[in-house]
Protein backbone atom coordinates (compact mmCIF):
# COMPACT_ATOMS: atom_id res chain seq x y z
CA UNK A 1 0.00 0.00 0.00
CA UNK A 2 1.25 3.60 -0.65
CA UNK A 3 2.86 5.40 2.39
CA UNK A 4 0.89 8.47 3.49
CA UNK A 5 2.49 11.86 4.25
CA UNK A 6 1.78 11.45 7.99
CA UNK A 7 3.63 8.14 8.07
CA UNK A 8 6.59 9.73 6.29
CA UNK A 9 6.68 12.58 8.88
CA UNK A 10 6.56 10.07 11.73
CA UNK A 11 9.52 8.15 10.31
CA UNK A 12 11.51 11.37 9.82
CA UNK A 13 10.75 12.53 13.39
CA UNK A 14 11.82 9.18 14.79
CA UNK A 15 15.05 9.36 12.81
CA UNK A 16 15.82 12.89 14.15
CA UNK A 17 15.02 11.80 17.70
CA UNK A 18 17.52 8.92 17.44
CA UNK A 19 20.24 11.26 16.28
CA UNK A 20 19.43 13.65 19.13
CA UNK A 21 19.81 10.83 21.64
CA UNK A 22 23.16 9.84 20.15
CA UNK A 23 24.46 13.43 20.40
CA UNK A 24 23.22 13.74 23.99
CA UNK A 25 24.95 10.53 25.03
CA UNK A 26 28.20 11.57 23.37
CA UNK A 27 28.06 14.90 25.22
CA UNK A 28 27.48 13.08 28.49
CA UNK A 29 30.44 10.80 27.82
CA UNK A 30 32.74 13.77 27.15
CA UNK A 31 31.52 15.50 30.26
CA UNK A 32 32.09 12.35 32.34
CA UNK A 33 35.62 11.90 30.99
CA UNK A 34 36.41 15.52 31.72
CA UNK A 35 35.12 15.12 35.23
CA UNK A 36 37.16 11.98 35.78
CA UNK A 37 40.34 13.58 34.50
CA UNK A 38 39.91 16.59 36.73
CA UNK A 39 39.30 14.61 39.86
CA UNK A 40 40.94 11.27 39.28
CA UNK A 41 43.65 12.02 41.85
CA UNK A 42 41.09 12.52 44.56
CA UNK A 43 38.79 9.58 43.61
CA UNK A 44 39.01 6.17 45.13
CA UNK A 45 39.75 3.08 43.02
CA UNK A 46 36.21 1.70 43.50
CA UNK A 47 34.69 4.91 42.22
CA UNK A 48 36.92 4.89 39.13
CA UNK A 49 36.01 1.24 38.42
CA UNK A 50 32.34 2.04 38.76
CA UNK A 51 32.67 4.95 36.33
CA UNK A 52 34.47 2.74 33.80
CA UNK A 53 31.59 0.26 33.91
CA UNK A 54 29.13 3.12 33.28
CA UNK A 55 31.24 4.32 30.34
CA UNK A 56 31.23 0.83 28.78
CA UNK A 57 27.47 0.63 29.22
CA UNK A 58 27.10 4.04 27.60
CA UNK A 59 29.28 2.90 24.68
CA UNK A 60 27.03 -0.13 24.19
CA UNK A 61 23.96 2.11 24.20
CA UNK A 62 25.61 4.41 21.66
CA UNK A 63 26.36 1.40 19.41
CA UNK A 64 22.76 0.17 19.73
CA UNK A 65 21.41 3.63 18.94
CA UNK A 66 23.70 3.83 15.92
CA UNK A 67 22.44 0.43 14.72
CA UNK A 68 18.82 1.56 15.23
CA UNK A 69 19.56 4.70 13.26
CA UNK A 70 20.98 2.59 10.39
CA UNK A 71 17.90 0.35 10.45
CA UNK A 72 15.68 3.44 10.38
CA UNK A 73 17.55 4.80 7.39
CA UNK A 74 17.16 1.48 5.57
CA UNK A 75 13.44 1.40 6.40
CA UNK A 76 13.06 4.98 5.16
CA UNK A 77 14.90 4.10 1.93
CA UNK A 78 12.71 1.01 1.41
CA UNK A 79 9.63 3.15 2.01
CA UNK A 80 10.78 5.64 -0.61
CA UNK A 81 11.41 2.78 -3.07
CA UNK A 82 7.91 1.39 -2.41
CA UNK A 83 6.38 4.84 -2.94
CA UNK A 84 8.29 5.19 -6.22
CA UNK A 85 7.11 1.71 -7.38
CA UNK A 86 3.50 2.52 -6.49
CA UNK A 87 3.80 5.79 -8.38
CA UNK A 88 5.09 3.93 -11.44
CA UNK A 89 2.19 1.46 -11.24
CA UNK A 90 -0.34 4.29 -10.95
CA UNK A 91 1.24 6.02 -13.96
CA UNK A 92 1.00 2.74 -15.93
CA UNK A 93 -2.67 2.32 -14.97
CA UNK A 94 -3.41 5.91 -16.04
CA UNK A 95 -1.65 5.26 -19.36
CA UNK A 96 -3.73 2.07 -19.94
CA UNK A 97 -6.94 3.93 -19.07
CA UNK A 98 -6.03 6.69 -21.49
CA UNK A 99 -5.36 4.11 -24.22
CA UNK A 100 -8.67 2.34 -23.56
CA UNK A 101 -10.54 5.63 -23.65
CA UNK A 102 -8.89 6.44 -26.99
CA UNK A 103 -10.00 3.05 -28.40
CA UNK A 104 -13.52 3.65 -27.07
CA UNK A 105 -13.65 7.02 -28.85
CA UNK A 106 -12.57 5.39 -32.14
CA UNK A 107 -15.15 2.57 -31.82
CA UNK A 108 -17.88 5.07 -30.90
CA UNK A 109 -17.03 7.17 -33.96
CA UNK A 110 -17.10 4.07 -36.21
CA UNK A 111 -20.47 3.01 -34.78
CA UNK A 112 -21.93 6.44 -35.56
CA UNK A 113 -20.67 6.17 -39.14
CA UNK A 114 -22.18 2.67 -39.48
CA UNK A 115 -25.51 3.88 -38.12
CA UNK A 116 -25.53 6.73 -40.63
CA UNK A 117 -24.68 4.34 -43.48
CA UNK A 118 -27.42 1.95 -42.37
CA UNK A 119 -30.01 4.76 -42.29
CA UNK A 120 -29.00 5.73 -45.81
CA UNK A 121 -29.23 2.08 -46.85
CA UNK A 122 -32.76 1.82 -45.42
CA UNK A 123 -33.81 4.92 -47.35
CA UNK A 124 -32.34 3.41 -50.54
CA UNK A 125 -34.13 0.08 -49.94
CA UNK A 126 -37.46 1.85 -49.37
CA UNK A 127 -37.03 3.86 -52.56
CA UNK A 128 -36.27 0.70 -54.55
CA UNK A 129 -39.29 -1.05 -53.05
CA UNK A 130 -41.53 1.85 -54.04
CA UNK A 131 -40.15 1.72 -57.58
CA UNK A 132 -40.73 -2.05 -57.79
CA UNK A 133 -44.28 -1.74 -56.47
CA UNK A 134 -45.04 1.00 -59.01
CA UNK A 135 -43.64 -1.18 -61.82
CA UNK A 136 -45.68 -4.13 -60.58
CA UNK A 137 -48.88 -2.07 -60.55
CA UNK A 138 -48.13 -0.93 -64.09
CA UNK A 139 -47.52 -4.56 -65.21
CA UNK A 140 -50.70 -5.71 -63.46
CA UNK A 141 -52.76 -3.08 -65.26
CA UNK A 142 -51.19 -4.03 -68.61
CA UNK A 143 -51.83 -7.73 -67.94
CA UNK A 144 -55.44 -7.07 -66.97
CA UNK A 145 -55.91 -5.26 -70.30
CA UNK A 146 -54.44 -8.27 -72.09
CA UNK A 147 -56.91 -10.53 -70.25
CA UNK A 148 -59.83 -8.38 -71.38
CA UNK A 149 -58.59 -8.57 -74.99
CA UNK A 150 -58.05 -12.34 -74.76
CA UNK A 151 -61.59 -12.78 -73.43
CA UNK A 152 -63.04 -10.92 -76.41
CA UNK A 153 -60.88 -12.65 -79.03
CA UNK A 154 -62.01 -16.24 -78.32
CA UNK A 155 -65.62 -15.21 -78.83
CA UNK A 156 -64.80 -14.19 -82.39
CA UNK A 157 -62.54 -17.23 -82.93
CA UNK A 158 -65.21 -19.71 -81.78
CA UNK A 159 -67.01 -19.36 -85.07
CA UNK A 160 -63.89 -19.89 -87.18
CA UNK A 161 -61.93 -22.48 -85.16
CA UNK A 162 -63.07 -25.94 -84.12
CA UNK A 163 -63.19 -26.61 -80.33
CA UNK A 164 -60.87 -29.62 -80.62
CA UNK A 165 -58.17 -27.61 -82.34
CA UNK A 166 -58.45 -24.86 -79.71
CA UNK A 167 -57.91 -27.31 -76.81
CA UNK A 168 -54.83 -28.87 -78.42
CA UNK A 169 -53.22 -25.43 -78.84
CA UNK A 170 -53.74 -24.68 -75.17
CA UNK A 171 -52.30 -28.02 -74.19
CA UNK A 172 -49.23 -27.46 -76.35
CA UNK A 173 -48.72 -23.99 -74.87
CA UNK A 174 -49.07 -25.36 -71.33
CA UNK A 175 -46.62 -28.16 -72.05
CA UNK A 176 -44.11 -25.67 -73.40
CA UNK A 177 -44.54 -23.43 -70.37
CA UNK A 178 -44.09 -26.31 -67.91
CA UNK A 179 -41.04 -27.53 -69.81
CA UNK A 180 -39.35 -24.13 -69.50
CA UNK A 181 -40.23 -23.92 -65.81
CA UNK A 182 -38.94 -27.47 -65.25
CA UNK A 183 -35.67 -26.66 -66.99
CA UNK A 184 -35.08 -23.62 -64.76
CA UNK A 185 -35.91 -25.57 -61.60
CA UNK A 186 -33.62 -28.46 -62.55
CA UNK A 187 -30.66 -26.04 -62.70
CA UNK A 188 -31.79 -24.61 -59.35
CA UNK A 189 -31.81 -28.08 -57.74
CA UNK A 190 -28.33 -28.80 -59.12
CA UNK A 191 -27.00 -25.64 -57.46
CA UNK A 192 -26.37 -23.89 -60.80
CA UNK A 193 -27.96 -20.70 -59.45
CA UNK A 194 -26.59 -18.37 -62.09
CA UNK A 195 -28.12 -20.41 -64.93
CA UNK A 196 -31.33 -20.96 -62.94
CA UNK A 197 -31.63 -17.21 -62.32
CA UNK A 198 -31.37 -16.44 -66.04
CA UNK A 199 -33.98 -19.10 -66.93
CA UNK A 200 -36.44 -18.00 -64.22
CA UNK A 201 -36.16 -14.38 -65.42
CA UNK A 202 -36.85 -15.49 -68.98
CA UNK A 203 -39.78 -17.63 -67.83
CA UNK A 204 -41.40 -14.80 -65.83
CA UNK A 205 -41.01 -12.32 -68.68
CA UNK A 206 -42.69 -14.80 -71.00
CA UNK A 207 -45.37 -16.10 -68.59
CA UNK A 208 -45.95 -13.39 -65.93
CA UNK A 209 -49.43 -14.66 -65.01
CA UNK A 210 -48.85 -18.42 -65.11
CA UNK A 211 -49.79 -20.69 -62.24
CA UNK A 212 -46.09 -21.22 -61.54
CA UNK A 213 -45.21 -17.51 -61.45
CA UNK A 214 -45.29 -17.41 -57.64
CA UNK A 215 -42.87 -20.31 -57.24
CA UNK A 216 -40.72 -18.97 -60.09
CA UNK A 217 -40.43 -15.59 -58.31
CA UNK A 218 -39.43 -17.34 -55.08
CA UNK A 219 -36.76 -19.50 -56.72
CA UNK A 220 -35.44 -16.46 -58.60
CA UNK A 221 -35.12 -14.59 -55.27
CA UNK A 222 -33.37 -17.55 -53.62
CA UNK A 223 -30.96 -17.82 -56.58
CA UNK A 224 -29.93 -14.19 -56.02
CA UNK A 225 -29.57 -14.94 -52.29
CA UNK A 226 -27.35 -17.97 -53.01
CA UNK A 227 -25.23 -15.82 -55.33
CA UNK A 228 -24.82 -13.38 -52.40
CA UNK A 229 -26.73 -10.62 -54.17
CA UNK A 230 -28.25 -9.76 -50.79
CA UNK A 231 -29.70 -6.28 -51.54
CA UNK A 232 -31.44 -7.59 -54.68
CA UNK A 233 -32.71 -10.71 -52.90
CA UNK A 234 -34.12 -8.60 -50.01
CA UNK A 235 -36.15 -6.51 -52.46
CA UNK A 236 -37.30 -9.59 -54.37
CA UNK A 237 -38.37 -11.46 -51.22
CA UNK A 238 -40.33 -8.38 -50.12
CA UNK A 239 -42.02 -8.16 -53.53
CA UNK A 240 -42.77 -11.91 -53.50
CA UNK A 241 -44.45 -11.85 -50.06
CA UNK A 242 -46.64 -8.89 -51.12
CA UNK A 243 -47.71 -10.35 -54.49
CA UNK A 244 -48.15 -13.97 -53.32
CA UNK A 245 -49.14 -13.82 -49.60
CA UNK A 246 -50.72 -17.32 -49.73
CA UNK A 247 -47.78 -19.05 -51.41
CA UNK A 248 -46.27 -21.96 -49.45
CA UNK A 249 -42.79 -20.35 -49.58
CA UNK A 250 -43.74 -17.06 -47.86
CA UNK A 251 -42.43 -18.07 -44.41
CA UNK A 252 -39.06 -19.14 -45.82
CA UNK A 253 -38.89 -15.97 -47.92
CA UNK A 254 -39.31 -13.76 -44.82
CA UNK A 255 -36.68 -15.81 -42.98
CA UNK A 256 -34.17 -15.50 -45.85
CA UNK A 257 -34.93 -11.79 -46.08
CA UNK A 258 -33.93 -11.53 -42.42
CA UNK A 259 -30.71 -13.44 -43.09
CA UNK A 260 -29.96 -11.01 -45.92
CA UNK A 261 -30.37 -8.04 -43.56
CA UNK A 262 -28.08 -9.69 -40.98
CA UNK A 263 -25.41 -10.11 -43.67
CA UNK A 264 -25.56 -6.46 -44.71
CA UNK A 265 -26.31 -4.30 -41.69
CA UNK A 266 -27.41 -3.98 -38.09
CA UNK A 267 -29.28 -7.14 -37.03
CA UNK A 268 -32.25 -5.17 -35.66
CA UNK A 269 -34.19 -5.54 -38.95
CA UNK A 270 -33.32 -9.23 -39.10
CA UNK A 271 -34.63 -9.74 -35.55
CA UNK A 272 -37.98 -8.13 -36.50
CA UNK A 273 -38.34 -10.47 -39.50
CA UNK A 274 -37.34 -13.57 -37.50
CA UNK A 275 -39.94 -12.74 -34.84
CA UNK A 276 -42.55 -12.24 -37.58
CA UNK A 277 -41.88 -15.73 -38.95
CA UNK A 278 -42.15 -17.29 -35.47
CA UNK A 279 -45.38 -15.40 -34.68
CA UNK A 280 -47.17 -16.03 -37.99
CA UNK A 281 -45.71 -19.42 -39.04
CA UNK A 282 -44.87 -21.06 -35.71
CA UNK A 283 -45.04 -24.68 -36.90
CA UNK A 284 -43.02 -24.17 -40.10
CA UNK A 285 -39.42 -25.09 -40.82
CA UNK A 286 -38.67 -21.41 -41.33
CA UNK A 287 -39.87 -20.66 -37.77
CA UNK A 288 -37.46 -23.25 -36.34
CA UNK A 289 -34.62 -21.72 -38.35
CA UNK A 290 -35.64 -18.24 -37.19
CA UNK A 291 -35.51 -19.34 -33.52
CA UNK A 292 -32.03 -20.73 -34.05
CA UNK A 293 -30.92 -17.50 -35.74
CA UNK A 294 -32.28 -15.41 -32.84
CA UNK A 295 -30.36 -17.53 -30.34
CA UNK A 296 -27.12 -17.01 -32.30
CA UNK A 297 -27.68 -13.25 -32.41
CA UNK A 298 -28.34 -13.19 -28.66
CA UNK A 299 -24.94 -14.83 -28.02
CA UNK A 300 -23.06 -12.27 -30.12
Brief descriptors of the model:
300 residues; mainly alpha; Serine Threonine Protein Phosphatase 5, Tetratricopeptide repeat; 2 domains
Count up the helices: 9
What characterizes the major β-sheet?
Answer: none
Estimate the mean pLDDT confidence. Answer: 78
Number of strands: 0
Uncertain stretches of 5 or more adjacent residues: 150-159
List the helices and strands and how they pair.
Elements (H helix, E strand, L loop, with lengths): L4 H35 L5 H116 L2 H28 L2 H14 L6 H14 L3 H14 L6 H15 L3 H13 L4 H15 L1
Overview of this structure, please?
This protein has 300 residues and is an all-alpha fold. It has 2 domains: 1-160; 167-299, Serine Threonine Protein Phosphatase 5, Tetratricopeptide repeat. Helix content is 88%, strand content 0%. It contains 9 helices and no strands. The chain has helices at residues 5-39, 45-160, 163-190, 193-206, 213-226, 230-243, 250-264, 268-280, 285-299. α1 (5-39) packs antiparallel against α2 (45-160), α5 (213-226) packs parallel to α7 and α7 runs antiparallel to α8 (268-280). It is rod-shaped. The two termini are 40 Å apart.
